[in-house]
Design a protein that fits this description.
The strands form 4 sheets. The chain has a 5-stranded mixed β-sheet with strand order 1-7-6-4-5, sandwiched between helices. Helix content is 34%, strand content 24%. α3 crosses α4. It contains 11 helices and 13 strands. By secondary structure, it is of the alpha/beta class. It has 2 domains: 167 residues, Thiolase/Chalcone synthase (Peroxisomal Thiolase, Chain A, domain 1); 149 residues, Thiolase/Chalcone synthase (Peroxisomal Thiolase, Chain A, domain 1), CATH 3.40.47. Bound molecules: oxa(dethia)-CoA. The site of oxa(dethia)-CoA has 20 residues, from α2, α6, α8 and β12.
Length: 327
């Protein structure tokens, strides 16, 4: 059997929030945001759009590229920290939208590393269960719904978006698209989290008044940990796969901060021309970010068969992970 990326899709909502717009909302300025983060603008979902609505457009595009209807999906995995509901899973909501009646469905929570985690889970499942011919992996967030728009430390960073990948076991001899993965985690729940809304601090009038349903992040600490974790996981992965950094066509890092992206590329010895960046347009879309990059690459005619892509992510948990793809 060989496991192929058969389709990709992505979607960002229409409304653009620029740095100039943010200057009117909190005490910040375009220069600070650009130089500290690399972000110029980000997208915001409409009030009536939930995460599954963003995801559905990305999924539709991925299914079209794959050339299969939703009814041929055998599993749906959705990576998100902004599900439509605590339950049912956003994966089940997508199943209904696409008539994916024979799929099993679940959400996976690994924050910004969610898509990388989900791709590796999907790969592992497909390698051990030949009955799984098509698996849909989604990374989608309406992250604006958990951003405190009065907190300049976080509100300038995030944006909404969605991405989808259709994996196929084509039953043929030959190499896999996903060659290898290296996932990691280090429980550190305080550094990057949403304090309330779960069983520890259920929603209450007090939790709402104290703005505990929004993302809180110790930015500087997270920055250092992110660079170190992504670099070492990429190095371990490349070593294990016997691939040199110089062979990587594109490093596709989670788009959290341009300075992090640049540092990871430099430390791996991968030049700027081979590092994919779109943070300037979308900000940090959490679990969607790497998938949006992948879809832009797939549709932009920049990739040739055989090209190596190195995906690497870091997020709350803390979690991290890297995946090596041969296109
Ligand atoms: O996706 C999950 C993983 N997330 C990440 O990896 C994000 C990691 N962290 C970061 O990207 C960066 O730490 C930030 C962009 C969040 C912050 O950049 P920084 O260079 O680490 O700045 P800082 O937090 O050390 O703050 C520097 C100064 C502070 O002022 P004082 O205390 O030096 O007077 C902040 O209050 O910048 C101030 N500041 C701002 N100023 C203007 C913080 N946010 C803003 C803002 N506009 N939006």
């Amino acid at each position: 059997m060989s496991l192929k990326i058969k389709g990709t899709g992505s979607y960002v909502p229409e409304q653009i929030l620029t740095n100039a717009d943010l200057e009117k909302m909190v005490e910040t300025n375009d220069e600070w945001i650009r130089t500290r983060t690399g972000i110029e603008e980000r997208r915001l979902a409409a009030p009536e759009q939930a995460t599954s609505d963003l995801a559905a457009i990305a999924v539709q595009r991925a299914l079209e590229m794959a050339g299969i209807p939703g009814s041929e999906l055998d599993a749906i995995i959705v990576a998100t920290i902004t599900p439509d509901h605590i339950f049912p899973s956003t994966a089940c909501i997508l199943q209904q939208k696409f008539g994916a009646v024979r799929a099993f469905c679940f959400d996976l929570e690994a924050a910004c590393s969610g898509l990388v985690y989900s791709l590796e889970v999907a790969r592992s499942l497909m390698k051990t269960n030949a009955a799984l011919k098509h698996v849909l992996v989604v990374g989608a967030e309406k992250i604006s719904s958990v951003v405190n728009w009065e907190d300049r430390n976080t509100c300038v960073l995030f944006g909404d978006g969605a991405a989808a990948v259709v994996l196929e076991n084509d039953g043929q001899e030959g190499g896999d698209s996903i060659i290898a993965a290296k996932l990691g985690a280090e429980g550190n729940p305080e550094i990057l989290h949403i304090p309330a809304g779960g069983s520890r601090n259920p929603a209450s009038a007090e939790s709402v008044a104290n703005k505990q349903h929004f993302i809180q992040m110790a930015g500087r600490d997270t920055f250092k940990l992110a660079v170190n974790a992504m670099v070492s996981s990429c190095r371990d992965l490349l070593d294990a796969a016997g691939v040199e950094a110089s062979q990587i066509r594109y490093l596709v890092p989670h788009q959290a901060n341009y300075r992090i992206i640049k540092a990871v590329g430099q430390r791996l010895g991968i030049g700027d021309d081979n590092v994919y960046v779109n943070i300037n347009r979308y900000g940090n879309t959490s679990a969607a970010s790497i998938g949006i990059c992948l879809d832009e690459l797939a549709r932009g005619q920049q990739l040739k068969p055989g090209d190596y892509l190195l995906l690497t992510a870091f997020g709350g948990g803390l979690t991290w992970g890297s995946i090596l793809i041969r296109w």
